[in-house]
């Protein structure tokens, strides 16, 4: 399981966009977005770099969760 902070999500549409971007990465089983916390939890064995790139390509900034 991987937890990341995603900056720039402000609404449900943003959360859906991030979820779809992450779930399109091979080997991602599920992405759970916590909009209030600005975090996403990813389940699966996908490459962390590919996940980060997918989030950035969707227009959001990503960093490690504290």
From TrEMBL:
GO biological process terms, semicolon-separated: copper ion transport
Keywords assigned by UniProt, alphabetized: Metal-binding
Classification via InterPro entries: Cu-bd, Heavy-metal-associated_CS, HMA_dom, HMA_dom_sf
One Gene Ontology term of the molecular function aspect: copper ion binding
UniProt xrefs under PROSITE patterns: HMA_1, HMA_2
Annotated ranges, domain HMA: 1-63
Protein name: Mercuric reductase
Annotated source species: Skermanella aerolata
Gene: yieF
